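Bumping my old thread because nobody answered last time. Still need a sequence for this structure:
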């Protein structure tokens, strides 16, 4: 929230809760388990930092920055966790076994802090360097050129841009990137974007200054061929 807003410090709320005997719960939301400051990503506390402030319980998601399946996670005081387990709603809201297996696999990746960033796709995407992103954009461009017949209407360029983490995690932070931009002369970018989004295998892009922009931050190498095929289809519109 921007503007004239204020937020009490967590430690202030903890002190107030202890004074009146009221448990303090903080909704962290993103489920960040590692310090991302080393990658220039600031403003999102870790679960450890939140618990160190003295809250009784903290809640966060199993997906988002944690990078696992969609789920809700609660950590904190054992006596309060035990009460939650006994509540009738727990039976209705508990996750299934497949989600548990997926969550376990992701959490095991965090046992090695030196390799977790490379193992969790969300973290890998967030922490890619500009050099790596430029190389990916160039590889994507080559794939498109190989797949498309020589057509003077097709315009391609690689340019610097910005990515957004999106959602509730670091919503206002710009992440420098390099993108592949595309135009087809004689066809509006809005029409091209709508076609890509409406395919049986959709390709989601954004429009910047009437160019379609493909951000390689969220594109895997094994998807280049599918994107190149989609770009070829644009020439038939």
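Sorry it took so long. Here it is:
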């Amino acid at each position: 929230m921007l503007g004239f807003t204020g937020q009490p410090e967590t430690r202030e709320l903890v002190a107030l809760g202890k004074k009146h005997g009221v448990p303090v719960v903080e909704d962290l939301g993103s489920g960040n388990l590692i310090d991302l400051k080393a990658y220039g990503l600031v403003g999102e506390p870790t679960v450890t930092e939140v618990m160190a402030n003295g809250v009784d319980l903290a809640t966060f998601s199993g997906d988002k920055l944690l990078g696992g399946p969609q789920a809700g996670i609660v950590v904190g005081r054992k006596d309060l966790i035990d009460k939650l387990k006994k509540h009738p709603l727990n039976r209705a809201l508990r996750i299934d076994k497949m989600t548990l297996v997926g969550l376990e696999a992701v959490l095991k990746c965090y046992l090695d802090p030196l390799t977790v960033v490379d193992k969790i796709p969300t973290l890998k995407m967030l922490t890619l360097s500009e050099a790596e992103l430029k190389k990916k954009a160039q590889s994507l461009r080559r794939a498109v050129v190989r797949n498309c017949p020589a057509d003077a209407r097709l315009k391609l360029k690689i340019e610097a841009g910005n990515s957004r983490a999106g959602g509730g995690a670091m919503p206002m932070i710009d992440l420098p990137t390099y993108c592949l931009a595309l135009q087809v002369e004689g066809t509006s970018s809005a029409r091209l974007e709508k076609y890509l989004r409406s395919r049986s295998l959709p390709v989601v892009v954004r429009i910047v200054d009437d160019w379609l922009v493909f951000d390689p931050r969220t594109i895997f190498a094994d998807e280049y061929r599918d994107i190149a095929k989609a770009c070829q289809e644009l020439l038939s519109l």
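The chain has a mean pLDDT of 92. Let me know if any region looks off to you.
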